[in-house]
Amino acid sequence: MNFISPELEAYASQHTCSESALLERINRDTQLEVLQPRMLSGHYQGRLLSLISKLLKPRRVLEIGTYTGYSALCMSEGLPANGLLVTIDVNEELQSRVQGYFDLSQYKDQINYRIGDAMEIIPQLNEKWDLVFIDADKKNYLNYYNLVIDNVNSGGLILADNVLWSGKVLDPNLKDRETEILRSYNDIIHNDVRVENILLPFRDGIMVARKK
Ligand SMILES: C[S@@+](CC[C@H](N)C(=O)[O-])C[C@H]1O[C@@H](n2cnc3c(N)ncnc32)[C@H](O)[C@@H]1O
């Protein structure tokens, strides 16, 4: 489902600054060689993630759901010299490909790529986050939020992707687990007094929560 017409989306994308040669390559390789390429953030959303990161200048970034590394590299663009991005993915089949992309980038020493279940890895991380991007299994979205919220610095952001779930959150007849959890996610974040929030209808919907 497109929330805006494909023509308007293309126009917006054409009037958005371009991605780096490495990001272009990851995008192309992913479309041609990797299963489920629709999971990739891509050029337009990637530029938003880059802009948010550049505005925030986060010292510590946590990404839950690396996939082919596209969004991790976009958010790395805002890291200060002493900044670090930790990105977690359970899919070890993509590990050598993704590590190869990270090794080609100028941020290679600032990216800590962890393979494993994010529910197990996050509690082992002893960090205070300035930017968190939740973009993994939908059933754990609330679990991820609950795991990180106390370790997000005041002024830090928690972004969650796909929260409009192709518009399914609006259909009361849809009661599958993922749709229900995304609805709960949106309701709970909206009512959480610890954060101020805005749900951006950007691509598949991004919930932005800023820790007070
Ligand atoms: C939508 S993709 C991430 C896309 C990427 N952030 C981007 O924008 O290009 C979701 C990823 O989450 C990973 N994933 C799913 N369940 C996970 C879990 N429990 N722990 C860590 N990663 C998980 C999948 O393997 C998949 O690569």
What labels would you give this structure?
about 210 residues, alpha/beta, 8 helices, 7 strands, binds S-adenosylmethionine
What is the number of helical segments per DSSP (H or I, 4+ residues)?
Answer: 8
Taking all Cα atoms into account, the compactness measure Rg is 16 Å
Q: Helix proportion of residues, in percent?
A: 25-40%
Beta-strand proportion: 15-25%
Number of extended strands:
7
Point out poorly predicted stretches.
none
Secondary structural class = alpha/beta
Which term fits the overall shape? globular
Q: Largest sheet, order of strands side by side?
A: 3-2-1-4-5-7-6
Overall pLDDT, averaged?
97
Q: Summarize the helix and strand pattern as letters.
A: HHHEHEHEHEHEHEE
Bound molecules: S-adenosylmethionine
Distance between the termini: 33 Å
Q: Please outline the major beta sheet.
A: 7 strands, mixed
Structure overview:
- By secondary structure, this protein is α/β, with parallel strands linked by helices.
- Helix content is 38%, strand content 21%.
- It contains eight helices and seven strands, in the order αααβαβαβαβαβαββ.
- The chain has helices at 6-14, 21-33, 42-56, 70-76, 95-104, 118-121, 141-148, 177-191, and strands spanning 60-64, 84-89, 111-115, 129-134, 152-161, 195-200, 206-211.
- Helix 4 links the parallel strand 1 (60-64) and strand 2.
- The termini are far apart.
- The model has no long low-confidence stretch (mean pLDDT 97).
- The structure holds S-adenosylmethionine.
